[in-house]
Amino acid sequence: FTWLKFYKIYLLVSALKELGNVVAVTGDGTNDAPALKKADVGFAMGIQGTEVAREAADIVLLDDNFASIVRAIMWGRNIYDNIRRFLQFQLTVNIVALISAFVGACVLNESP
After folding, report:
1. Maximum C-alpha span of the chain
2. Could you tell me the sign of the dihedral formed by the alpha carbons of 56, 57, 58, 60, in that order?
3. I need a surface site. Which of 11, 39, 60, 95 has the fewest CB within 10 A?
4. pTM, whole model, 2 decimals?
């Protein structure tokens, strides 16, 4: 949406957020700052970007390369999946241990 005026980008971000969407915005200029701030995730360019855009953004791309965004998303999804798997494993093990202790206490009439 680079062809839109900055206030239209801000309105678009606001409308998408009101509809319940997760919104990410990239920007490098002072006029992009309101949309960067309003978005769920704002990406600013570190080399070409203005100081205002970098301050308004959540993440600053140090190399101004959009491929960095793709790599960051891949890493983030991988970390999320690993945390989810770890929690699922821990919950499964702890629930089985709790059930075993409860059944053992009921059958043996003493604490295991």
Report:
1. 75
2. negative
3. 95
4. 0.66
pLDDT of residue 3: 60
Please count the CA atoms within 13 angstroms of the CA of 25 that sit on its side-chain side: 33
Enter the tokens of residue 1: 């949406």
C-beta atoms surrounding 9 within 10 Å? 21
